[in-house]
Design goal:
The chain has 148 residues and is an alpha/beta fold. 41% of the residues lie in helices and 24% in strands. The strands form 2 sheets. It has a 5-stranded parallel beta sheet with strand order 4-1-5-6-7. A two-stranded antiparallel ribbon has the order 2-3. It is globular. 28% of the residues are buried.
């Protein structure tokens, strides 16, 4: 077990459907989380803390908590999609000199500042296409884990 902390940054609010997280998205994120937990001692995922929507936190509560988690993180794995929140977390990680892994979904236009963050900090990028399903991209999780 690797003694490093991994922070998973992924959109949350946009994936709520009738006060529940979209099931396909949830399964994909859970798969990523569970696979990382088999390799790393400490994995942070806000969705786990918020019990996938059952204990949803306000921004004024979760922002300082997430920043504290980021400060003690070694590796950020980010799925930015079109989330401004994830973009902030990528910025935090970059400023704090954390290793960054981007999982970029082809169906979203990503800011050039996110897409090219590797020009100023340690970053690896992977591409997924969720037009049909998030779960169609499980092989990418395996590649990410192999290359960490």
């Amino acid at each position: 077990m690797v003694d490093k902390k991994v922070f998973i940054a992924c959109p949350i609010s946009k994936h709520y459907k009738k006060e529940k997280i979209d099931e396909d998205y949830r399964l994909f994120i859970e798969c990523l989380y569970k696979n990382l937990k088999t390799k790393y001692k400490n994995v942070f995922l806000a969705l786990e803390r918020e019990k996938y929507g059952e204990n949803k936190m306000e921004g004024s509560e979760c922002t300082p908590l997430d920043f504290e988690e980021m400060k003690s993180t070694d590796i950020l794995i980010a799925l930015p999609e079109d989330s401004m929140g994830v973009a902030v977390e990528v910025g935090w990680a970059s400023a704090l000199n954390k290793e960054i892994v981007l999982i970029l979904d082809q169906k979203y236009v990503v800011s050039p500042l996110i897409e090219c963050i590797g020009t100023v900090t340690d970053c690896k990028s992977y591409s997924i296409n969720t037009n049909n399903s998030y779960m169609d991209n499980i092989k990418v999780i395996e590649r990410v884990l192999e290359n960490l």
